[in-house]
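Q: Predict the bound structure with 5'-deoxyadenosine.
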Amino acid sequence: MTKAANETALPLKALTEELFLTGDLCDAGLAALISSEDEETRSRLAARARETTVANYGADVYLRGLIEFSSYCRNDCFYCGLRRSNAAARRYRLSKEEILDCCRRGYALDFRTFVLQSGEDEYYTDELLCDIISSIRGEFPDCAVTLSIGEKERASYEKYFRAGAERYLLREETGSPQHYARLHPPELSLEHRLNCLRELKGIGYQVGCGFMVGSPRQTPKDIVCDLRFFQELQPQMIGIGPFISHKDTPFAACRNGTAAMTLRLISILRLMFPKALIPATTALGTISPCGREEGLMAGANVVMPNLSPVGVRAKYLLYDGKICTGDEAAECRCCMQRRIESVGRRVSVSRGDHPDFGCRQRIKKAAPESSRAAS
Ligand code: 5AD
Ligand code: FES
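A: Predicted complex:
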């Protein structure tokens, strides 16, 4: 049950405490915290969120190696540099071997999760994707494969799952249907996207959703819709980052989202979803030089360094000014470790499953032993 309906007259400090203690607020309370601009509220939220993160995860920060394997996309999202109408976008595709090479480099650098991300590119048939997924799982059985390849049929999601993909990232981008229609062309609908997320969850994936912060004409009310959707779906991962304009899109002249609002929302998410895996995203590091460190201090516990070949990185431009496009994977890895340790945290060399999933695996593994002991 949520506290959606109540009106609030509580001051921001009391709202922060109530959120910390109960994990929920009424819509008006959430909107008040989302739109609060004072430094005191931001730092109070961050302190409570840090406390909650440490209680659930200790100092651990999980690494996800991001492999951006195709910059082709059939969609035309208004905010995205890879949209099909952007004739200036530079397009590339990685072969199965090139993707496996990224994983090999990543494995040597302690990555135990590979995130395969692309535009919606039909060149990669289900058969080819399953071959890539099962080859990665075959060569790296102790690693998780996460997909971030957009909206597909349920039957396709099932095939990828059977091939060994266990996690799926699909941001809803905004939880409000009206706002969704301002960010996307008419052929895309929020309803379809949310259904994809429900299907993924039903199949058994660890699911990640999320939204852009400060996208054009987004209101605090729109963000409350996202938060209510998360309460319904209970995703294992929640990724948010500031909207950043891309010069060759219809939103070229729009104002960017801010680091302060993104950090406040990371903290709110941590307090509402104490066990969620929440990344300090590259977009946050792009609008603010220490954005990712601040994200970790505000309640995030995941970072996603880039494992894509250096030659293609600058071509995967969702927004202008993206950082880390010139660095080798090893440099990114060292840089991330420094940043993580600079805020008193440590890199975890593990798959970093959601605690409930790890638990289920341990129970499964433990079962044969306990039955042996009993017999
Ligand atoms: N600014 C910030 N984030 C963006 N994304 C796409 N375009 C932009 C942009 N201009 C995000 C979307 C998508 C994720 C892969 O990147 O949220 O889901
Ligand atoms: Fe498809 Fe951005 S419009 S990846």
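A: The beta strands are 60-63, 65-70, 113-118, 144-148, 167-169, 206-213, 237-242, 302-303, 346-348.
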